[in-house]
Design brief:
By secondary structure, the chain is mostly helical. The protein has helices spanning 12-19, 21-29, 41-67, 83-104, 108-129, 131-135, 141-161, 166-178.
C-alpha cells in the first residue's frame, strides 16, 4: 500500500524519471487488473531485465548485421532453414496468433507473459545456439539465413508489443525496418 501521509507514495513524475515509462507500461501490462496491482522500484528492476534482454538481442543483431552488410530485403529460400530456424519461426507464429487473441479479449497481461517466454527463446536459445553461424568469417548462405530469422523474429516481437512499449519499439523499428526500407510505414504504430 502507498499512502501520502505515510510518506511511501511514489509519484508518477518521479517513477517515470527513475524507471522509464516503457518499464512502467510493461509492469502494468504484465499484471492481471482483477488483482491488486504491484508497483515499486524493485519490481521495476525485474521488468527492466526483460527490456534489457530485448535491447541486447537487438544490439547483437544490429552489430553483426552491420559488420556483414546484411540486407533484410534479399530473398531467402525456405529449404535451407535449419531446425532451430524453423523452431523459432514456429514459436513466433504461435506467439503472434495468441497475442492477437489476447488483445481482442483485453487480456494484455497474458501477452506479456508470453512475450517474456518468447524473448527468452530468442535470446537464450536461438541466439546462443546459433552464435557460431553469426560469427563465421565468410558470408555464406547459412549465415544469411540466421540473420534473416533473427531479423524476422525481432520485427515480429516489437510489432506485437508496440502498443505496450511504444517508445523502445519505435526506436528499434526506425532502425530495423524504416531505416532499411523507406517504403515501409514510417512508424511501427502504423503497421498491421
Amino acid at each position: 500500500e502507498m499512502h501520502k501521509s505515510w510518506g511511501n507514495a511514489i509519484w508518477f513524475d518521479d517513477a517515470a524519471e527513475e524507471m522509464g515509462v516503457d518499464v512502467m507500461r510493461w509492469m502494468y501490462a504484465s499484471q492481471n487488473p482483477e488483482h491488486n496491482l504491484l508497483f515499486g522500484y524493485a519490481l521495476a528492476d525485474e521488468v527492466r531485465k526483460q527490456i534489457i534482454t530485448l535491447w541486447n538481442t537487438y544490439s547483437f543483431f544490429v552489430t553483426y548485421a552491420n559488420l556483414d552488410s546484411f540486407n533484410p530485403l534479399e530473398n531467402i529460400k525456405d529449404e535451407k532453414f535449419t531446425k532451430s530456424d524453423l523452431w523459432i519461426k514456429s514459436k513466433m507464429n504461435v506467439f503472434i496468433e495468441s497475442a492477437q487473441t489476447y488483445y481482442e479479449s483485453y487480456q494484455v497481461y497474458k501477452i506479456m507473459t508470453e512475450a517474456t517466454l518468447i524473448l527468452d527463446d530468442i535470446s537464450n536459445w536461438y541466439v546462443r545456439r546459433n552464435r557460431r553461424r553469426f560469427w563465421k568469417s565468410e558470408n555464406d548462405y547459412d549465415k544469411l539465413i540466421a540473420y534473416d530469422t533473427l531479423y524476422e523474429s525481432l520485427v515480429a516481437i516489437i510489432k506485437v508489443i508496440a502498443p505496450i512499449v511504444p517508445f523502445l519499439t519505435e526506436k528499434m523499428y526506425k532502425n530495423l525496418v524504416f531505416g532499411v526500407n523507406p517504403d515501409s510505414p514510417e512508424s511501427i504504430h502504423l503497421c498491421d
